[in-house]
Design a protein that fits this description.
11 strands; mainly beta; seven-stranded mixed beta sheet; four-stranded antiparallel beta sheet; globular
């Protein structure tokens, strides 16, 4: 059973940065595409960034140019670097593997 655990969430002012991490229990990053999702209060969960096994990345328009997804296969860890955070980025952020497994999530709050 694949287990994913996120960390790195917290509270930051607008314009600030955070880096989220997602630790996987198994060596899956080279076999599954990995994604970062977020869910804001009252809204549906959305896939905001993903990285394919080839290393190709793509982003939803709302975060393009501000967020960067990356992975460290040796550490079985996925990352999301979030820069220039905005109030509308506040949400619970979760990582996912192959659209089959998800972590419990980590809260990101953006406020002044």
């Amino acid at each position: 059973q694949v287990q994913l655990v996120e960390s790195g969430g917290g509270s930051v002012q607008p314009g600030g940065s955070l880096r989220l991490s997602c630790a996987a229990s198994q060596d899956i990053l080279t076999f599954y595409w990995m994604g970062w999702y977020r869910q804001a209060p009252g809204k549906q969960q959305e896939l905001i960034a993903r990285i394919l096994t080839s290393g190709t990345t793509d982003y939803t328009d709302a975060v393009k140019g501000r967020f960067t997804i990356s992975r460290d296969n040796a550490k079985n860890t996925l990352y999301l670097q979030m820069d220039n955070l905005k109030a509308e980025d506040a949400a619970v952020y979760s990582c996912g593997a192959n659209g089959l497994y998800w972590g419990p999530g980590t809260q990101v709050t953006v406020s002044s």
